[in-house]
Design goal:
Distance between the termini: 32 Å
Structural class: mainly beta
Low-confidence stretches: 10-14, 186-215
Order of helices and strands: EEEHEEEEHEEH
Number of strands: 9
Mean pLDDT: 82
Radius of gyration: 16 Å
Shape: globular
Number of helices: 3
Helix content: 10-25%
Length: 215
């Protein structure tokens, strides 16, 4: 199966928790280190799952959505999303800044951290977005097919800007497999079925000069 993906370089939060997050930097309380993944539950508690990602987890590529995300950082306030019609084309123009904050490229995709635990990686900003682009390049390069890609976190890359820097995770495809039951049962109702579409990976461009990759 071939997946098209547009990185956009040329409403409310979707999905179900818990939520997977990439951390380019250490969290303020020091609980989660830099260049790592964590799971955030409904109470805001985080658990480091980097070792799980390094072993390989199923990604439901058909659940992928891309678009623009806005958040002013207010605690307890969900980010707003403007979704593209399909991840094959970044067809939404970047909305105007609001209150001094920019809308950032973001995405949502379902993953299975274990046989019984599904999660949503829904994040915006330069580091997370570059990670998604790296993932979709790996999907295209692998050329395999199946319902879910078993994705392995292989490391990270550094991204430098005129002011500041960030980092993104890198991935490889271990194999393709049947979709686990936890992804079948917990898939977001609003996710688009894209398995009938054809996808290609675009050239990646990044212009998020502040290096922020957290909500």
């Amino acid at each position: 199966m071939t997946y098209e993906f547009d990185d956009g370089g040329s409403a409310s939060s979707d999905g179900s928790g818990p939520y997977l997050n990439w951390h380019a930097r250490e969290t303020l309380n020091g609980a989660i280190g830099s260049r790592s993944f964590s799971i955030r539950d409904e109470d805001g508690n985080r658990t480091d799952v980097t070792d799980v990602m390094q072993k390989g987890v199923p990604f439901d590529i058909s659940s992928l959505r891309t678009g623009w995300c806005y958040s002013d950082g207010s605690p307890g306030v969900a980010p707003e999303w403007l979704w593209n019609e399909s991840p094959a084309r970044f067809d939404k123009a970047q909305p105007e800044d609001r209150g001094g904050e920019r809308w950032k490229k973001g995405f949502s995709v379902r993953v299975a951290l274990s046989k019984d635990q599904a999660a949503t990686w829904s994040q915006s900003g330069a580091g997370a977005w570059a990670g998604l682009v790296n993932l979709m390049r790996a999907v295209k390069a692998d050329g395999g097919s199946g319902e879910t890609a078993i994705v392995v976190m292989t490391g990270h890359e550094e991204i430098k800007f005129k002011k500041g820097s960030t980092s993104n995770p890198t991935f490889s495809i271990k194999k393709w497999a049947d979709k686990p039951d936890c992804l079948k049962d917990a898939a977001p109702a609003a996710s688009e079925a894209v398995d009938k579409a054809k996808y290609t990976t675009p050239k990646a461009t990044y212009s998020d000069g502040n290096g922020d990759d957290e909500f």
